[in-house]
């Protein structure tokens, strides 16, 4: 019978137990021992779930206190010297300081994990990086898993992918210089696992699905020739795309198996079947680890029949990738309609799907009830009247090129907007949200329970809005925001008011650290029945004479940060979303709002891993943004925001968005990300973030002055804005006020310094 396994399970817990324990530890409310107890309890529960689902292996090593890449760095002993920590005696408090920063050191850089919305901690390396040994936590987790009485398959990030994703601040440093040292440490880890009774180890190498330079591709051979002698069987894990172009390379390595993603790249199956040796195993990732729709179990089993006949017990069945990208369980969904719920499978349900596919390959009759139930749910979804809206489809089909084009080029718009807004050099603003206080969360919860009337809830949110506006005026910000007190999440808030969406109660997914989001479900054609943000923004603008931004989430981000229907092209769904946001943008303009920010932090993460798939994505993604933003007049200034991305390869498409102002994350990279915009000669205005809002560390004025000066080396001062990296929702008011006060002071220092070279028509805003 085909064997079954997974590459990872959601570590946060069905009720976000890990998140709440982390944050309690950070606040000093629990000690390290109590935090360890919470983690051990979650690992035991998730291991038991795998055992009870009948999986042949229990996965271990997929747990991380903050991030798997950071945990791998700690296991390797590869910590930056600037923190002064000894990896062999690293405490959890120190581990969190690496991720969040401390009073003397900014946090390690953070960016998106391939094309997902998960953010990983980037390893910081250099010529002197050593791999002399690190924490022992990993081995303790192996022992816990072994106590469950099932074979244990540890999962580690592979050496080439870890090194490929690492960054060095030493100019010109070749990261492959460290590979021999790194392999010595990996070999010791594998030898230790062998001594502890481990037979199989999965080394995840998703870099194999990317465009690798030949020296990096060749490094796989050197790496696995060395690791193949460590005594354990090695499963090389790939996902998020096709690794078929490297099939011959991997098949020639001294490894015993390979895992491939047959959801994202089903076409690669035949290549791997032909390439693998007779002694190598094929793990077929056939259950979608990135989306929540129920699998067509019968179709999957049919597709794998020939492969099963060829490989027999050398065929393993698995999800396409770690299940950490989906919620834990449908059991907590009490309010979701029974119809929609029947179409879904979260992580727990996917364990059963994996087992059902393996059973169907061995004994079709025994698996037939599970296959029939899945087929019936799929048929009901395909014929549901809730999915199709003919009016939306007609409007989408009628979109033409004129709807995606601003009336005038940026050079013309810039002059008109400058005269209308009369902002100072290097205007200051924020990205949109202000702290979501306990009072705000309590009011929202009371309103949802029915304990607070709608009018009372509206009044509470207006009080919070007024507080945000007053505070921004007192701090001296030039362009204000309303603070988003009424918004639970930048995607979920819109999803609750757009047709074609459903939202969950407990469908939480980790975004980074303790930050969790609840991606909504796009199950049908999308449209906006009525304005969503207009009244809240109009009220906020009535409180101040300073310009205030309307805040919207862009169509690509609404798409990327949702679980998207899989029964029509993503481009079509994106265009439906664009039309809904276009209507909202035009209504904001009619309400007298002169600046509208259409956030697209997910724009970069949607890019396929290989360049040969990028052109099609950029075509529809750029079109969707421009349809959403291009209906307004020249005087209305369109902003967009992107964060934690590598921009070099996508700058032509970012420029094609034609936003008047783009704000980006740059503080953790010390403005290095901005270099790409300078090299490209990005034509529009840009606001490089000057402080990291994901860290509790409050930067000083001098810190931000240096960052802005660094930005002025790349971008003309007349086209620079000054802002944080991202929204301030997760921060406390005290640190927010202190950081923004320093940011405004930094902008004033730089205005005096650069005023002589700025455009003469730039004038200060009214006091």
Mean pLDDT: 94
CATH class descriptor of the largest domain: Alpha Beta
Task: Please tell me what the overall shape is.
Answer: globular
Number of strands: 22
Overall structural domain count: 2
Distance linking N and C termini: 75 Å
In angstroms, what is the radius of gyration?
26 Å
Total of DSSP H or I helical runs spanning 4+ residues: 27
Q: Can I get a quick summary?
A:
The protein has 767 residues and is an alpha/beta fold. It has 27 helices and 22 strands.
Write structural notes for this entry.
With 767 residues, the chain is an alpha/beta fold. The protein has 2 domains: 3-62 and 136-382, TIM Barrel (Alpha-Beta Barrel); 399-756, TIM Barrel (Alpha-Beta Barrel). The chain is 42% helix and 12% strand. The chain is built from 27 helices and 22 strands. The strands form 6 sheets. The chain has an 8-stranded parallel sheet with strand order 1-12-11-10-9-8-6-2. A 5-stranded parallel sheet has the order 17-19-20-21-22. Strand 21, helix 25 (672-680) and strand 22 (685-688) form a beta-alpha-beta unit. The longest helix is centred in the middle third of the chain and has 22 residues, at 454-475. The radius of gyration is 26 Å and the shape is globular. Residues 759-767 have low confidence and may be disordered.
């Amino acid at each position: 019978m085909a064997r079954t396994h997974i590459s990872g399970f959601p570590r946060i817990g069905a009720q976000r137990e890990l998140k709440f324990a982390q944050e309690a530890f950070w606040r000093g409310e629990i000690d390290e021992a109590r935090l360890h107890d919470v983690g051990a309890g979650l690992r035991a529960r998730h291991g038991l779930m795998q055992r009870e689902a009948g999986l042949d292996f229990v996965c271990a090593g997929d747990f991380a206190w903050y991030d798997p890449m950071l945990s791998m760095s700690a296991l390797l002993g590869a910590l930056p010297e600037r923190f002064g920590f000894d990896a062999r005696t690293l405490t959890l408090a120190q581990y969190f300081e690496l991720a969040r920063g401390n009073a003397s050191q900014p946090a390690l850089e953070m960016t998106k994990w391939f094309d997902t919305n998960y953010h990983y901690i980037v390893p910081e390396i250099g010529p002197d990086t050593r791999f002399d040994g690190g924490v022992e936590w990993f081995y303790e987790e192996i022992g816990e898993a072994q106590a469950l009485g099932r074979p244990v398959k540890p999962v580690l990030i592979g050496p080439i992918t870890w090194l490929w994703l690492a960054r060095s601040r030493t100019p010109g440093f070749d990261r492959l210089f460290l590979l021999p040292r790194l392999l010595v440490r990996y070999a010791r880890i594998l030898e230790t696992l062998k001594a502890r009774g481990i037979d199989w180890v999965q080394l995840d190498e998703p870099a194999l699905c990317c465009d690798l330079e030949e020296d990096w591709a060749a490094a796989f051979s050197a790496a696995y020739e060395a690791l193949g002698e460590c005594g354990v069987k090695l499963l090389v894990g790939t996902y998020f795309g096709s690794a078929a172009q490297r099939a011959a390379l991997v098949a020639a390595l001294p490894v015993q198996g390979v895992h491939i993603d047959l959801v994202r790249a089903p076409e690669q199956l035949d290549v791997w079947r032909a390439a693998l040796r007779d002694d190598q195993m094929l793990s077929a990732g056939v259950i979608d680890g990135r989306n929540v729709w129920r699998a067509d179990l019968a179709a999957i089993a049919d597709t794998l029949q020939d492969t099963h006949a060829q490989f027999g017990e050398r065929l393993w069945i698995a999800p396409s990738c770690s299940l950490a990208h989906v919620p834990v369980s449908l059991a907590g969904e009490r309010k979701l309609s029974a119809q929609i719920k029947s179409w879904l499978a979260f992580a727990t349900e996917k364990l059963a799907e994996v087992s059902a596919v393996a059973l169907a390959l061995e004994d079709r009759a025994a698996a037939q009830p599970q296959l029939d139930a899945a087929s019936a749910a799929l048929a009901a979804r395909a014929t549901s009247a809730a999915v199709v809206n003919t009016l939306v489809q007609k409007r989408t089909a009628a979109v033409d090129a004129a709807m995606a084009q601003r009336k005038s080029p940026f050079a013309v718009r810039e002059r008109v907007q400058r005269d209308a807004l009369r902002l100072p050099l290097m205007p200051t603003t924020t990205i949109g949200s202000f702290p979501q206080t306990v009072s705000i969360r309590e009011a929202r919860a009371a309103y949802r329970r029915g304990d607070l009337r709608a009018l009372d809830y509206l009044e509470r949110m207006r009080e919070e809005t007024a507080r945000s506006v007053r505070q921004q005026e007192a701090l001296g910000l030039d362009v204000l925001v309303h603070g988003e007190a009424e918004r639970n999440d930048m995607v979920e808030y819109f999803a609750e008011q757009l047709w074609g969406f459903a939202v969950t109660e407990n469908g939480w997914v980790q975004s980074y650290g303790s930050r969790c989001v609840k991606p909504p479900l796009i199950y049908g054609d999308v449209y906006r029945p009525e304005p969503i943000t207009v009244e809240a923004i109009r009220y906020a603008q009535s409180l101040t004479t300073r310009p205030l931004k309307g805040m919207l989430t862009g169509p690509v981000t609404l798409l990327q940060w949702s679980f998207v229907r899989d029964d029509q092209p993503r481009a079509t769904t994106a265009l439906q979303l664009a039309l809904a946001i276009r209507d909202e943008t035009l209504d904001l303009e009619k309400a007298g709002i002169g600046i509208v920010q259409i956030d697209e932090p997910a724009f970069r993460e949607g890019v396929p891993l290989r360049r040969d798939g990028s052109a099609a994505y950029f075509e529809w993604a750029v079109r969707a943004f421009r349809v959403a933003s291009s209906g307004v007049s020249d005087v209305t200034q369109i902003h967009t925001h992107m964060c934690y991305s590598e921009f070099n390869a996508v700058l032509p498409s970012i420029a094609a968005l034609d936003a008047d102002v783009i704000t980006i994350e740059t503080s953790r990279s010390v403005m290095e990300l901005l270099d790409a915009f300078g090299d490209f000669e990005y034509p529009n205005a840009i606001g490089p973030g000057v402080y990291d809002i994901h860290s509790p560390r409050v930067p000083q004025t001098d810190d931000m002055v240096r960052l802005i000066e660094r930005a002025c080396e790349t971008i003309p001062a007349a086209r620079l804005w000054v802002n944080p990296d991202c929204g301030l929702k997760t921060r406390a008011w005290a640190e927010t006020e202190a950081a923004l006060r320093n940011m405004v002071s930094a902008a004033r220092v730089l205005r005096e310094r650069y005023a002589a070279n700025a455009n003469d028509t730039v004038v200060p805003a009214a006091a």
